[in-house]
Design brief:
Elements (H helix, E strand, L loop, with lengths): L1 H13 L6 H25 L3 H27 L12 H27 L2
Helix pairs in contact: 1-2, 1-3, 2-3, 3-4
């Protein structure tokens, strides 16, 4: 599930540091499975499976586009900070999340346009 996987990035950046690293990992994984469960419930609430998939892929695209923004505000570095000294791993994660987000939204737009 793309939405739940992207939630791992958000939970890692936005959850406060716990007393121990194990507590933090527990919260991150609980967030992952909670979002996964919500997405599963959403697919049962929606009557049409195709529309549920489109909804979740749109949400995935928006969440993927938000990763560089959250990274910039929480760490001060990233693709959007225009700092040339950022680590390559951060640069690649931000760039790939933006690329995947735009690709998902573009693809969903094409699917919705072809239905008309």
């Amino acid at each position: 599930m793309v939405v739940a996987t992207v939630t791992l990035f958000y939970a890692n950046k936005l959850l406060p540091m716990g007393n121990t690293l194990d507590q933090r990992y527990d919260w991150v994984f609980m967030a992952y499975f909670a979002v996964w469960l919500v997405c599963l419930i959403w697919t049962f609430i929606r009557r049409k499976a195709k529309q549920a998939a489109v909804d979740l892929l749109q949400l995935s695209g928006v969440l993927l586009l938000g990763i560089p923004v959250v990274n910039m505000f929480t760490t001060g570095n990233g693709l959007l900070s225009f700092d040339l000294t950022i680590p390559l791993s951060t640069l690649f994660v931000d760039a790939l999340s933006m690329l995947l987000g735009f690709t998902l939204l573009y693809t969903i737009g094409k699917i919705n346009y072809s239905k008309r």
